[in-house]
DNA sequence: CGGCACGGTAAGTGCTAACTTACGGTAAGT
DNA sequence: ACTTACCGTAAGTTAGCACTTACCGTGCCG
């Protein structure tokens, strides 16, 4: 599916540029390539990656392929990130609490003295 | 700034493993490396990247460096992703409204606070 | 005070992937 | 039917980065 693949997909700067462009509305491959410093085939390959990550969807119109953002993949990314966010907050709160109590350095570590 | 840098940081699988490990609580560099298939220096380098992206924070305890998740970077990522998600939804709604086409797509519209 | 554990940095290597040009296949216009 | 436009794929090159070993500074304990 698309568990963490979305992060891999958005890890590339060119792919993020494509997403940024698609934020303002659907566009064809040629239009996307025209606004980017790379060739059309490169854009096509990036779109393939984004599509496999569920971040974009395609709508064929004649020989032109109109790409648009797909909410599906972004929703998955969002929930992943939300979990991380919650755990980060919990860890932060726990650390702050331990700090307030005492200088406790006791954890479930297997580090022998 | 580190607006999108977080996506770059989370684009690497080893770095995501580190984050996953830190979800359960703080850990030292040696502990992190012990649970990963890479060497300690590699972990150190990854932690540097994560720290520069604002995703982790350090707490020096003697010669040991205790790393933990930092809510700051995740908050930034979250808002970035929220904007993208909203635009994706808007684009989808506009497209669906313009045409009644059925692409066999299946997405849920859950909108948290 | 001398050895030891911990971890960050330097230098070098290999593999992944982003990019290129070239080609083929499909749909629309004339 | 021929031509033109649009796009995906193949093959090959190159640049970046993840990883390694080696080294050094720092803080604990004997």
From TrEMBL, chains A, B:
Organism domain of life:
Bacteria
InterPro entries in UniProt? ArsR-like_HTH, HTH_ArsR_DNA-bd_dom, HTH_MetalResp_TranReg, WH-like_DNA-bd_sf, WH_DNA-bd_sf
**Coiled-coil segments:** none
Give all residue intervals belonging to the HTH arsR-type domain. 1-88
Q: Which CDD domains match?
A: HTH_ARSR (cd00090)
State what protein this is by name: ArsR family transcriptional regulator
GO terms of molecular function: DNA binding; DNA-binding transcription factor activity
Q: Which UniProt keywords apply?
A: DNA-binding, Transcription, Transcription regulation
